[in-house]
Design brief:
heterodimer, A: 2 strands, flat, disordered N terminus, B: six-stranded mixed beta sheet, 6 helices, 6 strands, 44% helix, globular
Chain lengths: 494, 171
C-alpha cells in the first residue's frame, strides 16, 4: 500500500504539469479563481503553488529538480539547495501537486457542466425535487421547453435534454398531480426521446465502425440489418443526423458513388440543420471516401478538389478562428495535384493568418514548397523547404520526402552528396520514434526503390530497371508507389 | 604661428595614436544560424570539395585544430575547395561567445552556427556512425563523401584533403 502511495506521488507532479500545460490561458485564469475560492479549497499552499506554476513553469520549462526546488522554496518559504532537497521534501511538494491536480479536475467538471445542459439539469432537478421546490421546478420546465422549441439543430444533445426534461417532468406529475392521462402521453414521448438518443448514438457508433475501423458489423451487438430497418422508420429518417449517418454507413459499406452524391446533396440542402462541427465531420467522411477510392485506383481527385472548394466556400475549413494545419496541407495538396495552383495560393494566403503563430512561417513555407514542387519548379521548392522548421510528424516527413524528390529531379549527374542526403533521410525515417512499424516499413520500401532509381537514372547502380520494377511490384506496402512507378516509366523512355 | 604648431601637434598625435593601435581588423564574418537542411543545400553548390568541420567554442581539441582548417582554406580556396566551420554552440551564445571568438582568432573560412535544438536525430543525419563527439569533419564532393570523428593533426588533414581533392577533380 505504501509502495502504491509513493508511486502516485512519484508521477503526480508530472501528471499535474501535463494537465496544466493543456489548459488555455483563459482556463488557467478561471482555475486561479476556482482555487482561490474557500468553498473549493481551504489549503493555503494551493493558491501559492498554482500562481507560481503558472508564472514560472506551465508551458515554459520542464519541471526538473532545479524548478522543483524553486517551487518548493517559494511556496513553503524555504531556502533548500539540491543537497537538502530530499525524499521527504519531494513527497511534500508532490502531495500538494496531487491535490492541485484534483482541484484542476474538479474545475474541469464544473466547466463542462456549462456545456452539458442535460447533465446539469438532471442534477439540478433531482436536488430541487428533494427540496420540494415545486414552483421553481415548473418555472425551469417552462423555460427550457421554450428554449428547446427554438432550436433548429436536432442532434444528440437536443434529444438528451428533451429526455431529461420529460423524465423529470413526469416524475413531477407523478408526485404533484397524479394525472393519469398526462402520464400516459408523457411516457410515450419519453420513450420516443430515449429511442432518438439510442438511434443517434447507435448510428454514430456504426458510422465510426464502417468508416474508421473498416468493420462490417453483423452480430448480436452490431446488427446492421436491425439498425437499417429502424432507420427507415419515418420518425427516425426525418432526423437529418440519423439520415446523414445512414448515408455515410451505406457509402462506406457499398462503395457506391450514388451515396456520395446523395450525401453531398443532402448536406448542401440541409446546412442549417447541422452544427458546423458536424458539417466538418460529414465533409471529412466524403473526403476520406474520395481518398480511399483514389488510393484503390479510381481517380477521384477532381471530386475531392470540388469538395474542398465547397467546404471553403461554406467556411467549414476553420474551427474556432484557427485552421487545422492538417486540413490546410490537404486542401493545398489536392489543389496542386489537380493543377489548380492559383486556388492553392489563394487558400494558403487566405488561411495563413489562422495558423498557430509559432509554426505559421514553417507551415506557409512548406505549402509554398508543395505548390512549387507540383509546378515542377524544384529549385524554388527547395528554397522554401529549407526554411521549414519542425512542425509535426506528418509535415516533417512529407517535407523530407519532397526535398528528396527535388534533388532527384534536379541532379543532372550522379552526386555522392545527394546520395548522402538520401541515406540520411532513410536513417531519419527508420529511427523516427513516432512512426509505427508498418509506417517505417512503408518508408523503408520507398527509400530502397528510390535510391536505386536514382542510381539507375545516372547509370551508377548495378541493378537493372526491370529488377527494380519487379521489386516494387512485389512490395505489399510502399509510401508512394504511384510516384515511383511514374519515375520507372520515365526512365524506360530514356 | 602658435596656432599652426598646435594643429601640427594634434596631427602628429593623431598619426601616432592610429599607428600604435594593435592591428585588430574588424572581421567581416557574418555567422548565420542555419538548419541542417540549409547546410545540405549549401554543400550542394559548385565547389569541387566541401570540408565541413563541426566545432564549438567550449571544445578545446576543436579550437586547437581550427588553425589547420584555416590554413587549408588559404591553400585550397582558389582550387574549388570550400572550408566551412560549423559551430555547435547554443544559438543564444552566438553574440557573446561565438562572434568574439571568431573576431579574436581572425577566422576566415565560411562560418555557420547549426541550430539543431528542434531537430531530433540530426547526428544520425549527418553521419549514422557519428557518436556526436566533436571535433568531427565531413568531406563532401560529387564523387565521394567521408566522415572523420576526432581531432586531426595538420599533416593528417593536409593528407586527407589532398586525397579527397584529387578524387574530386579526377575525370
Amino acid at each position: 500500500m505504501q509502495k502504491n502511495t509513493n508511486q502516485t506521488h512519484k508521477t503526480s507532479h508530472v501528471l499535474c504539469i501535463n494537465l496544466l500545460n493543456a489548459f488555455t490561458s483563459a482556463e488557467l485564469e478561471k482555475l486561479q479563481k476556482f482555487v482561490a475560492s474557500p468553498y473549493h479549497n481551504t489549503d493555503k499552499y494551493q493558491k501559492l503553488l498554482l500562481d507560481f506554476l503558472i508564472k514560472k513553469i506551465v508551458n515554459k520549462v520542464d519541471f526538473d529538480d532545479e524548478h522543483q526546488i524553486n517551487t518548493y522554496n517559494k511556496i513553503f518559504s524555504k531556502k533548500l539547495t539540491p543537497k537538502s532537497y530530499l525524499l521527504k521534501e519531494k513527497r511534500r511538494l508532490f502531495e500538494k501537486m496531487n491535490k492541485l491536480m484534483r482541484l484542476a479536475e474538479k474545475f474541469l467538471v464544473f466547466e463542462s457542466l456549462v456545456d452539458n445542459q442535460s447533465v446539469y439539469y438532471d442534477f439540478l432537478f433531482t436536488k430541487l425535487k428533494e427540496k420540494d421546490q415545486k414552483k421553481l421546478l415548473l418555472r425551469h420546465f417552462k423555460k427550457i421547453q421554450n428554449e428547446i422549441e427554438q432550436r433548429e439543430v436536432k442532434n444528440l444533445p437536443y434529444y438528451e435534454l428533451k429526455y431529461c426534461l420529460q423524465f423529470h417532468h413526469l416524475q413531477f406529475l407523478n408526485v404533484y398531480t397524479e394525472s393519469f392521462e398526462q402520464m400516459q402521453t408523457g411516457l410515450a414521448q419519453l420513450s420516443y426521446y430515449a429511442d432518438m438518443v439510442f438511434m443517434l448514438r447507435k448510428t454514430d457508433i456504426f458510422r465510426a465502425m464502417v468508416h474508421s475501423y473498416k468493420l462490417n458489423p453483423n452480430d448480436e451487438y452490431f446488427n446492421m440489418e436491425l439498425i437499417t430497418k429502424l432507420a427507415r422508420q419515418k420518425k427516425y429518417e426525418d432526423n437529418p443526423y440519423i439520415k446523414a449517418n445512414m448515408l455515410v454507413i451505406k457509402l462506406f459499406r457499398t462503395k457506391n458513388d450514388e451515396y456520395y452524391n446523395l450525401l453531398l446533396d443532402f448536406i448542401e440542402k440541409q446546412q442549417s440543420a447541422f452544427l458546423k462541427t458536424e458539417m466538418n465531420n460529414l465533409y471529412t467522411f466524403l473526403s476520406n471516401y474520395c481518398i480511399e477510392q483514389n488510393n484503390s485506383g479510381v481517380n477521384m481527385l477532381h471530386e475531392l478538389f470540388s469538395l474542398n472548394q465547397i467546404a471553403e466556400k461554406n467556411k467549414i475549413i476553420f474551427e474556432n478562428g484557427e485552421v487545422s494545419i492538417r486540413t490546410l496541407k490537404h486542401i493545398i495538396g489536392v489543389a496542386c495535384k489537380t493543377a489548380h495552383f492559383n486556388w492553392a495560393q489563394f487558400a494558403l494566403d487566405k488561411y495563413k493568418s489562422l495558423v498557430e503563430k509559432n509554426i505559421r512561417n514553417s507551415v506557409y513555407n512548406f505549402n509554398l514548397c508543395a505548390i512549387a514542387y507540383y509546378k515542377k519548379e524544384y529549385e524554388k521548392a527547395l528554397s522554401y523547404a529549407i526554411k521549414v522548421n519542425e512542425i509535426n510528424l506528418d509535415y516533417d516527413k512529407n517535407c523530407k520526402i519532397m526535398i528528396l524528390k527535388c534533388h532527384y529531379e534536379l541532379d543532372e549527374e550522379y552526386d555522392e552528396r545527394t546520395l548522402r542526403i538520401f541515406r540520411s533521410a532513410e536513417k531519419y525515417l527508420k529511427t523516427m520514434k513516432l512512426l509505427n512499424r508498418r509506417q517505417k516499413k512503408m518508408y523503408a520500401n520507398f527509400m530502397n526503390i528510390f535510391i536505386n532509381l536514382y542510381k539507375i537514372k545516372h547509370r551508377a547502380g548495378r541493378l537493372t530497371l526491370a529488377t527494380i520494377e519487379k521489386r516494387l511490384q512485389n512490395q505489399t506496402i510502399n509510401s508512394d508507389k504511384h510516384w515511383l512507378l511514374s519515375k520507372i516509366e520515365e526512365l524506360k523512355k530514356i | 604661428m602658435i596656432k599652426t604648431n598646435v594643429l601640427g601637434l594634434i596631427g602628429l598625435f593623431t598619426i601616432l595614436f592610429y599607428t600604435c593601435q594593435p592591428k585588430f581588423h574588424k572581421s567581416n564574418q557574418n555567422i548565420s544560424i542555419i538548419s541542417l537542411q540549409q547546410l545540405e543545400q549549401i554543400t550542394k553548390g559548385n565547389a569541387q570539395l566541401y570540408i565541413i568541420n563541426f566545432w564549438a567554442t567550449w571544445c578545446k581539441p576543436c579550437i586547437e585544430e581550427l588553425p589547420y582548417f584555416e590554413k587549408i582554406n588559404q591553400q585550397y580556396k582558389n582550387k574549388g575547395v570550400q572550408t566551412i566551420l560549423v559551430s555547435l554552440d547554443f544559438k543564444e551564445d552566438l553574440k557573446e561567445k561565438v562572434k568574439p571568438f571568431v573576431l579574436k582568432n581572425q577566422l576566415k573560412s565560411q562560418l555557420y552556427l547549426l541550430d539543431v535544438e528542434k531537430q531530433k536525430g540530426w547526428i544520425d543525419e549527418i553521419n549514422p556512425n557519428w557518436s556526436g563527439a566533436i571535433p568531427a569533419t565531413l568531406f563532401l564532393s560529387k564523387k565521394n563523401t567521408h566522415f572523420k570523428e576526432g581531432e586531426l593533426s595538420l599533416n593528417e588533414l593536409e593528407e586527407l584533403v589532398e586525397i579527397y581533392y584529387q578524387q574530386a577533380i579526377k575525370k
